[in-house]
Amino acid sequence: MTDNIVMSTMQDRDWKKECRTRIMSDRNWARGDIQAVFTMKVHKGAITRLRIKSGKLLSADMFGQVAIWDTATYECEGVIEAAVGPIQLLDFSAAAMVMTVISKSGICRIWDIESKRLIHSSYATYVTCMTMNDEYLILGSKEGEIQVIDFMTGQIVASTASFPGETLQDIYIQNNTLIIATGHHVRIVSIDTLEILLTSPLPISPSTHTYCCVFHIRSLILLTDEHLLHIEWEPLYKHKDDRLLTDTRFELPPNLTKAPLIHRTKIPPILTITSIAIGGKHPHVLTTNADHPSLNDAIRVCPVIPRHHFYSSGGNDKGVGARRTSRSSRLIGRDDMPRLPLEEEDDEEGEEEEEEQDDDLNSGLNGSEAKGIVLTSQVDAISDYLETCGLKPSFMDVDEDVIVVGTSKGDIVALHMMPQD
């Protein structure tokens, strides 16, 4: 019965329209062509957190206020005095319309967004990351502890110190599992039992310092001293009879047993990076640069690794020690997709790059390197506006084809990569 419902749903979808939309989206991202810009002003202090998903945008500021926005109209639906002082972490369940905020003082508060009613309040010291789905709030701590909380009651459903000595940097809910990312490992954990199902060391040197990371579907964006690393695993395909392949509500998990592909993007010194974000069906990395009073040279998109490169690694799938991929598989782009601007190189430069790649592999790093794409088009106009007001980008988030950027004085700028109706 379930399979019949799924097949009927798939037949009702307008595949041609979805393909056209996807192609247009890829082209606009590759060219950096912004199709629509919106600016919003409600906050009186710097934006400290943004969270956009399922047609809703929540923005938090240094005074503890959270504003709720409808992304169809970008009208403010209300403001909640959610915390005392700057908000450090923010997330929400779009289905339940419940949000969680954690202030820098270590107070965790769960709010009903529509009624603006406080559901639960507790201490949450040393929390470094959190996420929410339609049922649970998941907290990760600096001491390697995971807590699964029923956000409607505030009760802890499960808790474990699975990773003592490791700081949890990001948690991603995928189907009935958690993807746990630390500075040097990624693990798949059962959301019900908190049992570790799969674990893999990240293909970087143990001495490499990692500042933060964000996981999305099968991609991990890792910020180190000098690089943004886009690490992408191939999907862990299931048997054809498994509903994971036919039920579109499920995401294909990452295959941590095989070596991932890596794309490196050189970045400015670490002190200039204020936030990273990843989202959408085809992940992109975006960073804001606190040293620039505008968006020019501040927002960058990390190129996506084409799917066919997963099968051109020479058959060696032994994790950190994987062999260097062929030259063609290290360059991003393919004939039927818009090519991302990589630096031109002659034969001598190519040989030098091969030697550099060997050095990187010896230290645990591999992958290609590019400058990234600076979004163009209407960014200049936004930059002029920000400079006139003396504003600096402070935080950002991304969802599908929308980028939202908060500023140092409370303004929010939304950049759309697809035309708005």
Automatic annotation (TrEMBL):
Biased composition of type Acidic residues is found at: 343-361
Keywords recorded for this protein, A-Z: Repeat, WD repeat
Q: Is the keyword Repeat in the record?
A: yes
Give the superkingdom in one word: Eukaryota
Signal peptide limits = none
Amino acid composition bias (Basic and acidic residues), ranges on this chain: 332-342
Q: Where is this region: Disordered?
A: 313-368
Output the PANTHER family linked to this UniProt entry: ANGIO-ASSOCIATED MIGRATORY CELL PROTEIN, MITOCHONDRIAL DIVISION PROTEIN 1-RELATED
Write down what this protein is called: WD40 repeat-like protein
Which organism is this protein's natural source? Linnemannia gamsii
